[in-house]
């Protein structure tokens, strides 16, 4: 056993004790689902007595009319809304500072995120800054003291699961290195999973975000931490995604399919909220930071390779998952993941990858992976090997 493995085992022995004493929440306080559930959430926010709601979103969702569709649900309430639509993919601390300024300028008392993981994660950090002094970057390194401002979430993709998690991934402005900020108090107070907001989602985004949700579900299921109902939620999500993702990709206008996928993404989010993600995310975060590869796409490309690394340590769990989706063995399941990726148009290799960056990617990915409960502790050599497989042939 290497020194790294000994340190990792000690760390996770402590983590198990900590999680036994203080388990992570597995659900938001209130979830609205089905057609026009975003309006139900709007009415709920009104009933809670909030008066000035900051909307955290991105310009494309404003241009597509999605934000206006949601805001129509506030018309018969006393809630006034103020839109910050400056969120960009992989939001930075400075983007969040801009949103926080809109919150303070309008003396808001609550926040509603409308969007994918970028908007929901940015809103989580803005909510912390709304009630705690200090610049937002400081919360990457220290615990915040006061409870964040009340946060609500409406996901417009079925992937990130951020509406069900107590964490946010925010990028540094300079080097785009990602910081993970996590605290149970960051969990949204309520969410709406409204399929009517998802029917126009482009096929390539449906594919990438759906594979992100699948990665969450698998990484939670095989996590050595195995706390709470992470396996039940992960298993349910895996089955739905295998059945429904091709249909969502091919016929995104089908509300029933969109409803199923948003529930799967939510359950996968609940699963990682209890045991966190794993080595797939440890690598994918670096590919996003350095090359801007969309998060779900990076996960999808890395996923089969990391699963092969986990075959020995997680054969039992991978075989269980295999049988859920009609395969016999762990190897067959990994092949089925690759087939699913291909079917929804995910490439096997990354054009942007450059070997000159490999040492940096490996250093950061191995360090990040050390803190996850992946069944196999990834070495630098193994990470290098995966990156080589992602190079265009
Ligand atoms: Fe993810």
From TrEMBL:
Residues 31-195 form the Alcohol dehydrogenase iron-type/glycerol dehydrogenase GldA domain. PROSITE patterns: ADH_IRON_2. InterPro entries: ADH_Fe/GldA, ADH_Fe_C, ADH_Fe_CS, Alcohol_dehydrogenase_Fe. The keyword Protein biosynthesis does not apply. It comes from the Bacteria. The keyword DNA repair does not apply. Gene3D superfamilies: 3.40.50.1970, Dehydroquinate synthase-like - alpha domain. Its cofactor is Fe cation. One of its GO terms (molecular function) is metal ion binding. Keywords: NAD, Oxidoreductase. It holds the Pfam family Fe-ADH. Residues 206-389 form the Fe-containing alcohol dehydrogenase-like C-terminal domain. Belongs to the iron-containing alcohol dehydrogenase family. This is Possible iron-containing alcohol dehydrogenase. It comes from marine gamma proteobacterium HTCC2143.
């Amino acid at each position: 056993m290497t020194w790294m493995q000994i340190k990792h085992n000690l760390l996770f022995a402590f983590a198990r004790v900590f999680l036994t004493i203080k388990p992570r929440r597995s659900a938001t306080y209130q979830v609205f689902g089905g057609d026009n559930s975003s309006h139900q959430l709007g009415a709920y926010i009104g009933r809670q007595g909030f008066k000035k709601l900051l909307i955290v979103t991105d310009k494309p969702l404003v241009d597509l009319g999605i934000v206006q569709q949601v805001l129509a649900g506030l018309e018969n309430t006393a809630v006034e809304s103020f839109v910050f639509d400056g969120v960009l993919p992989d939001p930075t601390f400075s983007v969040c500072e801009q949103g926080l300024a809109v919150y303070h300028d309008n003396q808001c008392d609550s926040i509603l995120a409308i969007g994918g993981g970028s908007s929901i994660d940015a809103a989580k950090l803005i909510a912390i800054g709304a009630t705690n002094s200090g610049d937002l970057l400081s919360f990457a390194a220290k615990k915040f003291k006061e409870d964040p401002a009340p946060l609500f979430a409406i996901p417009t993709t079925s992937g990130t699961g951020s509406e069900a998690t107590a964490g946010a991934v925010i990028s540094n402005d300079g080097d785009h290195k990602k910081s993970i900020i996590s605290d149970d108090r960051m969990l949204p107070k309520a969410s709406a999973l409204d399929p009517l907001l998802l029917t126009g989602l482009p096929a390539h985004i449906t594919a990438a975000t759906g594979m992100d949700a699948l990665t969450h579900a698998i990484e939670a299921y095989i996590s050595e931490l195995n706390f709470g109902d992470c396996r039940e939620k992960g298993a349910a999500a895996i089955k739905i995604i295998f059945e429904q993702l091709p249909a969502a990709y091919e016929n995104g206008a089908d509300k029933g399919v969109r409803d199923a996928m948003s529930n799967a993404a939510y359950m996968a989010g609940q699963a990682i909220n209890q045991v966190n993600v794993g080595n797939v995310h440890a690598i994918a975060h670096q590919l996003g930071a350095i090359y801007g590869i969309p998060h779900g796409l990076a996960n999808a490309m890395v996923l089969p390779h990391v699963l092969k690394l986990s075959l020995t340590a997680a054969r039992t769990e991978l075989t269980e998952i295999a049988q859920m989706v009609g395969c016999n063995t762990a190897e067959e399941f990994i092949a089925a993941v690759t087939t699913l990726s291909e079917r929804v148009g995910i490439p096997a290799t990354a054009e942007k990858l450059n070997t000159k960056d490999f040492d940096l990617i490996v250093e950061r990915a191995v360090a990040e992976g050390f803190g996850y409960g992946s069944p196999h502790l990834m070495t630098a050599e193994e990470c290098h090997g995966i990156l080589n497989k992602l190079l265009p042939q």
